[in-house]
Amino acid sequence: MKTASASAAGLVLAITAGATLASGMSMPANGGEHFPFGHPGRGTGPVHVIHIRALDTLRFDPARIVVTRGETVKFVVTNAGKLAHEFVIGDTAEQAAHEKEMQAMPGKSMKHDVNGISLPPGQTRALVWTFTRDGTVEYACHIPGHFAAGMLGKIIVQSPAHH
User: What confidence tens digit (pLDDT) does each residue in 54-78 have?
Assistant: First the structure.
């Protein structure tokens, strides 16, 4: 039989493990970050490498990617232009929230959560991610004016049976 204090401790742990931050991501009890569509990948074991270019035409190349749920993906993103860009992965709500934050702080350098990277002109940076749910996730640049101009791509996450 559980004691009242053991039950209370379990409840506190459950609340901590499922706490949702204002940004819509949850914070597991172990301190790692988790998003509805996945979590940062470890980069160990099999990794699917995908190369993406951020262009000064305010587009990503490619603009659509298909990945398998459960696989770890290493996005190697190159800023092929002379303008600063960023690469942020998220669902539609996450992208809208980040866009609002960036518009409120024009000209300021943005510190990214684990789901985004800044891309100075000519630089290549990597982001490793494990997708845990089927569906569509977006990648976008929220440098003022870029998202509004269409600097957005789609990641189609499919269950292994679809590949």
Answer: 999 999 999 999 999 999 999 999 9
Domain count, the chain: 2
Q: Cα angle vertex 42, ends 36, 44, to 5°?
A: 135
Pairing of strands 116-119, 38-40: unpaired
Q: What is the domain extent for residue 11?
A: 1-34
Q: What is the residue type of 47?
A: V
Same domain? For 4 and 70 the reply is no
142-158: b or e for each residue (b if 16 or more CB lie within 10 Å)? Answer: bbeebbeeebbbebebe
Residues 99 and 149 in one domain: yes
